[in-house]
Amino acid sequence: MAQYFELHPDNPQPRLLKQAAALLTQGGVLAVPTDSSYALVCHLDDKTASDRLRSLRGVDDKHHLTLLCRDLSELATYAKVDNWQFRLLKAATPGPFTFILEATKEVPRRLSHPARKTIGLRVPEHRVLLDLLAQHGAPLLATTLIPAGETEPLNDAQDIRERYEHQLAGVLDAGACTLEPTTVVDLSSDAPTVLRQGGGDPALLGL
After folding, report:
1. pTM of the model
2. Which of 13, 32, 51, 88 is the most buried if burial means most Cβ atoms within 10 Å?
């Protein structure tokens, strides 16, 4: 039975976030709001939870999962970042961008792309999610909450609760999110490439 947390969008209650973070530590998968759509998140180092996350999303190991980070210094722990890449990251974070970067050894190999050894990373601009990350004390593994076999993300916490009542450990409700996904930018080669146009404006990166 998924626990349901009703959180103030601008001043989320620390007591509830502490309870939600405890579910992550125990191996639970949560549905959380972001500055794009809702996302599924779990503890980075929990293989069972990450497998469940992929199963709920209906994707295989070739689908880039994303690490949600609190800031750029945390992001740099998990990705190899040159000076030109850092300038682009600084211009676009926090915000609705996902960046594909070469993973460092801090990322478990089972989570990076099997052929390219890359990982998606982003720094969201959403108070509830940032406070949850701070409470958890580490990045969270994430994927957009698009039900398996469907194409549109979910953005209503009550709907998510009804559909995943017995599959999630918890749902964080801080109001509806947008239905626009992040803009995905591949920074793993010599030149940046926009792989998906979403909520982030590529002009911020000069693209």
Report:
1. 0.92
2. 32
